[in-house]
Fold:
Amino acid sequence: MMISTELVDSLSELVGCPRDHFTLEHIPSTFIFEGQEDAGYPFVEMHWFNRGPEVQDKVAASLTQMIRQVTSETTDIAIIFHQLIEQDYYENGEHF
Structure:
């Protein structure tokens, strides 16, 4: 929300694809720890076509830096990359 434009701008540049190829989704969650609701921490899932470990490291660092703008320095930030397989990805019924 607050950092969404900056986030997509950065990802577009790092990954090398147009801004409109990115979709951000916020899914509200309830975190639970030892039977009590907990504040939790940012948990980012990135679904993408593999661009190698160097680009992945840069994307993770950029995401962490931007999320730090709206969290504290001590907040854990988890980023998980899910590799999409081109032969399994369709857009409008066609292979991507």
Observations:
- The two ends are 28 Å apart (CA to CA).
- Strands lie at 31-33, 36-38, 43-49, 78-84, 90-91, 94-95.
- The helical segments are 4-15, 52-68.
